[in-house]
Amino acid sequence: MVTRPEVNLDELMIETPEQFRVHGSVYSDEKIFELEMERIFHSGWVYVGHESEIPRGGDYKSTFVGTQPVILTRHADDNRIYVLYNRCRHKGTTVCQEEYGNSNYFRCSYHGWVYSNKGDLVGVTGPELYGKGFNQAELGLVPVACVDDYRGFIFARLVPEGPTLLEHLGNATKKIDQFIEQWPQGKLTVDAGVQKYGYNGNWKLQLENTVDSYHFPIVHATMLEIAKRRSNGMISYDRVEAAKRRVWDLGNGHASFEAGLGEVHFIVFPNLALLGLQVRVIYPITPTRTEVQLHMTMLEGAPDEVNEKRLRLHEEGFGPSGFIGPDDQEVAFTRIPIGLRATKGNDWVIMERGIEFDESHEDGSISNPTSGEVTWRGIFRQWKKLLS
Q1: Which residues contact 292 (CB under 8 A, 6 or more apart)?
Q2: 46-150: which CATH number, 3.40.50.300, 2.102.10.10, 3.40.190.150, 3.30.420.40?
Q3: What kind of fold does domain 9-43+171-387 have according to CATH?
Q4: Pairing with 54, which of 41, 226, 235, 339 sits 20 to 30 Å away (CA)?
């Protein structure tokens, strides 16, 4: 039986026509984190991978849904995609240790039980010592309740009840379409390697930062100055022009902003971000520990020099010596968790910038001037809805 921690959500979020604030404890409290895992990550749709990461029969990827270890695998015979819990049915040992690979079988290294890559238990060490009640056919790796994909992006849900994937994605489907179709080939691959980093802060900080355009000309001023110099002033940040663009609460916690230069920049609640050249995946570890993976996207059929240039641009922005990722790592993911410890008489985080300019649209989305915080408000409205 799952224990539901006592959390009063009405004491953690203030929303009025003029105000929108969240309590600082939502970024560190253990009970809140437990509730988030149960009701967001372990009960809703969570991104687990892209079809191009497992293109051939036998390919697999080990990953997580919230805190649950799983294996994303493509079966060699039927080409179907499965998501299986990474846990031997005997003693509970993980049966897949590598992050990526190709194999028709997973073998538990503790007692030698062997599973097919769609989860069937096909081999047991010393089966003669098990009694008549031992039914090998019933002891395969347990599949998650639901698996679905949208245009190659694969999602899993651990419980059978709930909205369909399309219902969950809602207006985000339009952004995924735009992300893919911004390239003439209309197809991308997510197999150029993975950049990883972690930080001692909450998972929601990463989600918020990805769709926060307010910080961009401040935190990333160096990068903007370099781009201006290289282009002889042709590329520069113009506050007047930027103010004409919009940020969007797309509904269901998804959000986006118009980054300029035709770039698509948005999040799919709770753990996926598609921005510019990359697919970004968020992994909550503890209330104050998060891991992030950045997967570079390659254009299928494009000349090698085009994809190589994409890699170099990614490295320049998000590599260890880049001008975007390391800035965010220091300011948003290191300094905010430290600052949030100052709780005496200073418990609330303000998210109401642009609230008087919110504009509702027929599809249920809400937009705001480019530096507004409508994206954050959309994230926390969904957060509270799912936790309630």
Answers
A1: 196, 197, 198, 199, 206, 280, 281, 282, 283
A2: 2.102.10.10
A3: Naphthalene 1,2-dioxygenase Alpha Subunit; Chain A, domain 1 (3.90.380)
A4: 41
The answer to whether residues 65 and 144 touch, using CB atoms and an 8 Å cutoff, is yes
pTM of the model: 0.94
Q: What residues does each domain of the chain span?
A: 9-43+171-387, 46-150
The enclosing H or E element of 294 equals strand 289-296
Task: Tell me if 212 sits within 8 A of 376, measured CB to CB.
Answer: yes
Question: Could you give the residue ranges of the DSSP H alpha helices within the chain?
Answer: 30-36, 165-169, 172-181, 203-210, 216-219, 221-230, 239-243, 304-318, 325-330, 336-339, 374-387
> Is-contact 246 369, C-beta < 8 A?
yes
Strand partners, 293: 196, 281
Q: How far is CA 150 from CA 51, 135, 155, 180, 244, in A?
A: 10, 36, 8, 11, 31
Contact 190, 179 (CB under 8 A): no
Q: How confident is the model at residue 7 (pLDDT cuts 50, 70, 90)?
A: confident
Task: Please report the pLDDT score of residue 54 as a whole number.
Answer: 97
